[in-house]
């Protein structure tokens, strides 16, 4: 268990005013203990920290990508190797920015689910996602079974 600072606990209470009530409704799988307020507070604190970190990193990465795109023709000359290297660098930076945006979107979605009291419920089956799964990956929106079905269809 992670120690939550007083400031973080206050931020969580402000961000999720109904959490103490909602946590009692978060479903669990057979054999699991009910969610405790402390467990959900820890996940919420982690998600809020991730959100802040991702927003900062995304701001820096967006600026770097913008600079890279703006200066993409400078210094490349007519050398195809230089042009290819620059294109690869732009592609890598773009992939990084897109991945960060996706992760930030997943993080915001998880925070919204906590806020709405729908956290821990599979978005496909409406069954419990499972505490162990959410503690390992707090952004999870699908139960293990629903995720497996999704991956089989996509494979």
From TrEMBL:
The record's InterPro entries line, in alphabetical order, gives: DnaK_N (IPR037187), Znf_DskA_TraR_CS (IPR020458)
Q: Which residues form the signal peptide?
A: none
**ZnF (dksA C4-type) residues:** 122-146
Protein name stated in the entry: TraR/DksA family transcriptional regulator
Tell me the segments the record calls region Disordered: 68-88
Q: Please tell me the species this chain comes from.
A: Promicromonospora citrea
Superkingdom to which the source organism belongs:
Bacteria
């Amino acid at each position: 268990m992670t120690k939550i600072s007083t400031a973080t606990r206050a931020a969580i209470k402000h961000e999720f005013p109904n959490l103490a009530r909602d946590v009692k409704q978060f479903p669990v799988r057979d054999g699991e203990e009910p969610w405790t307020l402390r467990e959900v507070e820890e996940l919420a604190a982690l998600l809020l920290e991730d959100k802040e970190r991702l927003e900062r990193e995304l701001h820096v990465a967006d600026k770097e990508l913008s600079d890279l795109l703006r200066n993409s023709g400078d210094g490349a000359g007519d050398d195809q190797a230089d042009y290819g290297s620059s294109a690869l660098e732009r592609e890598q930076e773009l992939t990084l920015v897109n991945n960060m945006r996706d992760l930030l979107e997943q993080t915001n979605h998880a925070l919204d689910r906590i806020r709405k009291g729908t956290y821990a419920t599979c978005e496909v089956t409406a069954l419990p996602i499972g505490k162990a799964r959410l503690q390992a990956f707090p952004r999870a929106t699908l139960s293990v079974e629903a995720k497996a079905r999704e991956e089989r269809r996509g494979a």
